[in-house]
Write a structure and sequence with these properties.
Strand content: under 5%
Helix content: 55-70%
Number of strands: 2
Strand order of the largest sheet: 1-2
Radius of gyration: 35 Å
Shape: flat
Largest sheet: 2 strands, antiparallel
């Protein structure tokens, strides 16, 4: 078959006839046609179309097509089949199947004619893609019938399971497709129950926490979640219930996603383990007390609580597993743990290893930031004061001053109780307490005297130094009678030095592509690009060519710096607009768009990028003058004055962020300078600087600006 014959075959024949013709060719002829098919597929995949009359010419070529319509899709599908039937795996990996579902039979025939290594390599390559381009029924058929090996690890396994989940249980009805409950689909392919469903517990997926799916407007009335299906199959004996319980417990150690973790332990709870099943997993529940996620720890405490209501728990190992949970910031889990501690202390005599473990837990509870947790721990320490050794009591006293007032008051009574139990310790304890109090008071007095007089006055501590009104350290400090915005912040912060040349800017961007040192460095780069945007030496393109390539090719497994997927989308487009000299506006799919506060930052960067492309360089208003994002008020007024002199209107998001970054230092001086500003935004700026004239009814169109002010 010649090149012309192959082109005629693609244009005139159906996909089934093409497959028949290609598979009937000798191996040598197929190898000769492989590069022809690959080149033609590449041209059509790029949007070109074979001419209807071109088969009459000596050689096949292509002509531009203005639309990607039905004819293009037909030719693309035919050439995809041809490449898969003829080409080496390196070329075949580029093909993504775009045919109809009824063409799966043809694709399967092509696969059956290829060797097993080729089939495995192509399938694993496609499954690594977020959108494999092949239907689940085709992939599952290859695996079930032994034409391809089931992926066992890595991205191909994750892609295989994602494809299974999205096709078996999408959560909403597809147009023209009847919804089939998940349990019925799993029973129709029972081998899935032997391996695939257990692999879901190794995947970072929220299939077991799909409450959001039930709220979907297209969710079927008889919708059955993965949890519903597995629980039903376990009750019918189709799935090993004990294995399901163990898998749901093991799954909580495999992910850091809260939704995924919640799905695992909710499934375990819905299985309602019996008394024997709870007892068999007591050690696993105890190990979960050291989990880094609060709701997982809460689940473990609830399961242990179910056990302790029926029979005593081993006190020492349970207490030994508790200290890590008091590092959780919330107070719900520590309070629940202390409730369990109370049960354990009632069931055994507090002595030896049990007393040491209980004391360690209560000390960790005292270190928790929540006052309620500290109070409960202090109550236990006082209630069991006779069980603590001298060393244990001394350890409590060491950090008693760091506790909340109520907890400290409770532990203050510990001294009298200790004296009643250990009379010999009374004099030593009193002397140590007095010495500690005097030492602490002197340290605080020294530190307060070192403060500037103005701050001492603001804090209501102006009586230091032995005069009337001296600070009484035995009482809590008075409430602050001033706003925190009155305190200076710029005096101890280093200024941010602007980038002064294109050479420095190129070096800074090159470094930031690989690694970003700080947020302040990003602000310096944004400011440098904006101010030096029009400054392009003759060799600018040659010097930045490598940076452009790195920006486009860097977002892979080794991605860092500016090409990191988590970076704001607008930041990447700003850098590329400067490097290439033309507007770059990447349209990201919804799942890659930033959320929350980063969306505002992204909008500011995109607004700045559009201005630079249309109007050229400018000085951004929101560029910080000092570390941590602060702007000196006088500098902001100077920048706005420069805008007015140049007849330039501030960018909306840029001005908003500048107002949010205003430092409290020198606002009075800046307000005096801002009196000459005349823009419609000027009253809001003066209000932010401390002016008396607030917003009026006519300012409602600038609501965001006034809120920022």
């Amino acid at each position: 078959m010649t090149e012309k014959d192959f082109a005629a075959l693609v244009v005139r024949q159906s996909p089934a006839e093409i497959v028949d013709a290609l598979l009937a060719l000798p191996a040598e002829t197929r190898r000769a046609l492989a590069p022809i098919a690959a080149d033609l597929w590449k041209a059509v995949d790029g949007g070109r179309l074979l001419n209807e009359w071109l088969v009459l010419l000596p050689g096949a070529s292509t002509t531009r097509s203005g639309s990607l319509g039905r004819k293009w899709r037909e030719q693309h599908a035919k050439l995809s089949l041809s490449v898969l039937a003829l080409c080496h795996i390196d070329k075949a990996k580029r093909v993504h199947w775009l045919g109809q579902r009824d063409a799966e039979v043809l694709l399967r025939r092509v696969f059956a004619a290829r060797d097993p290594a080729w089939r495995d390599a192509w399938l694993r390559h496609r499954l690594r893609d977020e959108f494999p381009g092949v239907p689940w029924s085709f992939v599952r058929g290859l695996v079930r019938d032994g034409l391809c090996r089931r992926p066992e690890e890595g991205d191909s396994l994750r892609g295989y399971l994602r494809l299974m989940v999205s096709n078996l249980n999408p959560g909403w009805s597809r147009p023209g497709v009847q919804y089939i409950p998940l349990r019925a689909q799993l029973l129709a392919d029972p081998s899935l129950l032997d391996d695939e469903i257990w692999r879901l517990f190794e995947l970072d997926t929220n299939v077991f926490d799909d409450a959001w799916t039930r709220g979907h407007p297209q969710c079927p009335a008889d919708y059955e979640s993965w949890s519903d299906a597995l629980i039903g199959l376990a009750s019918e004996g189709r799935v090993d219930r004990r294995r399901l319980l163990d898998a749901s417990l093991a799954g909580v150690w495999t992910s850091s996603n809260n939704s995924v973790l919640a799905g695992y332990h909710k499934l375990h709870s819905r299985l309602a383990p019996s008394a024997d099943e709870l007892d068999a997993r007591e050690t696993a529940y105890r190990e979960l007390l050291g989990h880094r996620t609060g709701h997982v720890v809460g689940f473990a405490l609830r399961q242990l609580g179910l056990i302790v209501r029926r029979r005593p728990l081993p006190g020492e190992p349970t207490l030994a597993a508790m200290p890590p949970l008091f590092a959780l910031p919330a107070k719900a889990q520590p309070l629940a743990a202390l409730k369990l501690v109370g049960r354990l202390l009632k069931q055994e005599e507090l002595a030896g290893d049990l007393a040491e473990a209980a004391h360690a837990v209560l000390c960790e509870a005292l270190r928790h930031p929540a006052s309620e947790v500290q109070q409960v721990a202090a109550q236990f320490l006082c209630a069991y004061v006779g069980a603590w050794s001298d060393d244990q009591l001394e350890r409590v006293r060491r950090f008693a001053d760091e506790l909340a007032p109520l907890a400290r008051a409770q532990l203050a009574g510990l001294g009298a109780e200790v004296a009643a139990v250990h009379p010999a310790l009374r004099l030593a304890a009193d002397a140590a307490a007095e010495a500690a109090a005097n030492s602490a008071e002197q340290q605080w007095r020294t530190r307060l005297q070192a403060l500037p007089p103005r701050l001492r006055t603001l804090g209501g501590m102006c009586g230091l130094g032995g005069s009337a009104g001296e600070v009484d350290f035995s009482r809590p400090p008075p409430p602050l009678a001033f706003a925190l915005s009155d305190l200076p912040v710029l005096t101890k912060l280093p200024p941010l030095l602007p980038i002064t040349s294109v050479d420095e800017l190129i070096d800074g961007v090159a470094h930031a592509i690989e690694a970003i040192d700080s947020v302040d460095e990003v602000e310096r780069l944004v400011d440098g690009i904006a101010r030096l945007f029009d400054d392009r030496p003759a060799d600018f393109a040659a010097r930045t060519q490598a940076l452009v390539k790195r920006m486009y090719t860097g977002a892979l497994a080794d991605a860092r710096g500016l090409v990191l997927p988590g970076a704001p989308n607008g930041l990447r487009d700003l850098v590329l607009t400067w490097l290439e000299g033309r507007l770059q506006h990447t349209h990201y799919p919804f799942w890659r768009q930033v959320r929350g506060p980063m969306r505002f930052v992204d909008r500011r960067l995109r607004e700045l990028t559009r201005h630079l492309d249309r109007h050229g360089a400018l000085q951004p208003l929101a560029t910080p003058t000092h570390a941590h994002g602060w702007i000196a008020p006088c500098v902001l007024v100077e920048r706005l004055t420069g805008y007015e002199l140049a007849g330039r209107r501030p960018l909306a998001s840029d001005l908003l962020q500048a107002l949010l970054r205003l430092a409290p230092d020198g606002r009075g001086e800046a307000l005096a300078l801002a009196g000459e500003l005349r823009g419609d935004w000027a009253p809001a700026v003066r209000w932010a600087l401390g002016g008396a004239d607030g917003a009026h009814a006519q300012d409602r169109k600038q609501t965001a600006l006034w809120i920022a002010a």
